[in-house]
Amino acid sequence: MNRSISLSDGEWKLMNLLWEEAPRTIAQLVSALKDDTGWTKGTIFMMLSRMATKGAVRFEAGGRSKLFYPVLKKEDAAACETESFLSKVYGGSIGLMVSSMAGQKVLTKEDIDELYAILREAEKESGK
Hints:
Shape: elongated
Low-confidence stretches: none
Radius of gyration: 19 Å
Largest sheet: 2 strands, antiparallel
Mean pLDDT: 91
């Protein structure tokens, strides 16, 4: 699977619905997004077509409606998005990102404890 598929904010909305439950029809997606986005059937169809071209979704004929499935794994999309964000905003430096967050005091005690646990686990896995 190509991990470098980049998703727009709108595509993330559609993918999250498909990761939550698949397959879904366009009508089901319109209904699920109507309060949040107000997107029409045509808008969603156009977005799904673009996403199919990218390799993020696929569809099958399902009676009168096409059934849409995610192809891109959520973990791969998240990894690509994280790498892109880190590169754009912090020049690829995780340390700079955490330092910035700590400096802005956006990390709670629970966040810090979780980071320590993650780092201890990573240290164990690296054998150091």
